[in-house]
Design goal:
200 residues, alpha+beta, OB fold (Dihydrolipoamide Acetyltransferase, E2P), 2 domains, five-stranded mixed barrel, extended
Length: 200
Amino acid sequence: MNSDDRRAIFTVSQLNREVGLLLQQGFGRIWVQGEISNLSVPRSGHWYLSLKDAGAQLRCAMFRNANRLVGQPPRDGDEVLVRGRLGLYEARGDFQLIIEHIEPAGVGALCLHFEALKQKLAAEGLFEPERKRSIPSNPTCLGIVTSATGAALRDIRAVRRDAARSSMSLFTRLWCKATAPPPGSRTPSRAPIFTVRLMF
């Protein structure tokens, strides 16, 4: 018998369905704490959001029949506790948490850090109107700092197709370990490196 005849071959739909079942059965209902970001409340009444901490983020959905008991939607930056079930959105293969219950857990640490940074920069006068520059209506060159494989770059390219023709320079930031700074030094232990890719 040919070894190929003994292979267990899945279709994409079958594989996603099996993985979804494994996630649901393997974890059951779980509690997760995190900070809300990218909250979306479309006309359908469902809530779509991400929960994040300093190291990772998790896509979540809270459907209308569950969130109608909550009342006012939460806001980006809120620190929350949620209970729900892990699953896989089969059509896209996206790992996500289906939220059944949500409750506040204080103001998110990342949001507090962001607000503190905003106040620091404002105190330095960096947000003063006279420091702002007007955005040119027809730029000849665009500089973009983002991942070369991320969704942000795809969105920019899609918008650019409808705009005036201009050159684009992609700056991809990488991080490399540097030698440990001397005591008292403010030099970071990991230094950013920018690589430039020209796109016309």
